[in-house]
Amino acid sequence: MENKITQKEINQIVWKACDTFRGVLNSNQYKDYVLTMLFVKYVSDVWKDKKSFYATKYNGDETRMERALSNERFKLPENATFEFLFENRNEPNLGELINTSLERIEDANRSKLDRVFRSIDFNSENNLGQTKDRNRRLKNLLVDFAAMDLQPSHLDGNDIIGDAYEYLISMFAGEEGKKSGEFYTPSEVSTLLAKLLNPQPGDRICDPACGSASLLIKMAKEVGSNNFALYGQEVNGSTWALARMNMFLHEIDDATIEWGDTLNNPRLLEGDNLMKFNIVTANPPFSLDKWGAEAAVTDLHNRYHRGVPPKSKGDYAFISHMIETTYEDTGRVGVIMPHGALFRGSSEGKIRQQLIEENLLEAVIGLPANLFFGTGIPASILIFNKAKGNNTDVLFIDASKGYEAGKNQNRLRDSDIKKIVDTYFNFKKAELLNTENGVVIEDKYAFRATLKDIQNNDYNLNIPRYVDTFEEEEAIDVKQTQETIVALKKELVTVEDKMNKYLTELGF
């Protein structure tokens, strides 16, 4: 087929499909319906493509075709395909038919899709309206997706569907505002974290607050091969389902994504112990309130031995969990945090001090404001490394000015990402300073701080304490300024004289 469908065309079609729900539901309600239908359409078209291929290969021999299809990465019952649903689009119980088809897809693919569709109801009166309205909306949704041919042989690239899924998730995140940060990390920030953590073949990689798994997928792509193991946990049921589907569409079938509260019910275990990883990365909810501090003292896994974070701010609860789940001597952590985590005192200050004294902190990177959906505040990336060895220095980067301004949201450019990554790895390669005081790596951008520098600042990691961001004001020419003021005064007298003359002529 010469004219293959492109990424841009797919994105436009799937975004237009959302018109069925706009004005009736907010995107937080309808995103799951659209994303699930995209999933069903794609697996149906892949299945159709496979059947056509084997029909040609085996000259229509049904037995050999069935045997070949049974070895594919997923199975699709005939009464669960998109074509089946489209043929029955005028049925009065359309919502029930879709629900039943999703159950059949789950049953046929237990190891990959178990429980993925259990949190979505296409027959929901609360979300989709009464029967007549519900059927009309679902029919429109089927008609919209029927216009797309998603057979792999007709697509311009292998990653199109996975990328379209990511595109939709990012667009929904942009529409939803505050809640969107719970399920999506902006692509450029995920790319930055993946490059900083530099996952290698054979690594175990985990995101304990994985949302829709976009950050994990970026980590996987950075490896450059299929030799990796991905793990994640997500507390929100519908977001967990998105993560599972997202992995499937990116053909990462063996990822382990658990459903549950990481801080109160960690599900990634080996026996009775926390599973360990080479890399742990996350964009957890900022300063989470009521995160479970009351149970932290008796935590079965002793994650809070450095101290219990305040009950109204869970930032260091996530950091503590992440550090405890990395391999000793080799584990690395990359986590996105609000700036408050850098300098708040009390129990957080004590935990921060101990992490620094244990020589775990490697880098503090300040990001531009308004990068994240739902919040305009600037955030930071903290890198912890259990393999720092004798190097007790910490890198501070102020990258707050390196971005492309957007109407609703700023974004990191490739050049901004490269500068941060290059600065970080040059720091790691440089010889130890062996001095009491740190040095400026780049004026107003990066500083290499010694342990003594940090101790002198009472373990406060606020970036301006290390990177001088002060911009001198342009020198004022006093003589020129005085001359300008005198000239303005003369001009003002002239204007006032003219005004008085006009008023007199007018009889005032």
UniProtKB/TrEMBL annotation:
Q: Which residues form the DNA methylase adenine-specific domain?
A: 158-474
Does Cell cycle count among this protein's keywords? Answer: no
Give all residue intervals belonging to the N6 adenine-specific DNA methyltransferase N-terminal domain. 10-145
Q: Which InterPro entries match?
A: D12N6_MeTrfase_N, DNA_Adenine_Mtase, DNA_methylase_A-5, Restrct_endonuc_T1M, SAM-dependent_MTases_sf, T1MK-like_N_sf
- Give one Pfam family: N6_Mtase
Q: Which residues belong to the signal peptide in this entry? A: none
Extract the coiled-coil ranges from the record: 478-505
Q: What are its E.C. numbers?
A: 2.1.1.72
What GO biological process term is on the record, naming one? methylation
* Gene3D superfamilies assigned: 1.20.1260.30, Vaccinia Virus protein VP39 (3.40.50.150)
Q: Which UniProt keywords apply?
A: Coiled coil, Methyltransferase, Restriction system, S-adenosyl-L-methionine, Transferase
Reactions this protein catalyses: a 2'-deoxyadenosine in DNA + S-adenosyl-L-methionine = an N(6)-methyl-2'-deoxyadenosine in DNA + S-adenosyl-L-homocysteine + H(+)
The UniProt record lists the keyword Signal? no
Alphabetized GO MF terms: site-specific DNA-methyltransferase (adenine-specific) activity
NCBIfam families from the entry?
Answer: hsdM
Q: Which family does it belong to?
A: Belongs to the N(4)/N(6)-methyltransferase family.
The name on file for this protein is site-specific DNA-methyltransferase (adenine-specific)
Record the organism: Flavobacterium aureirubrum
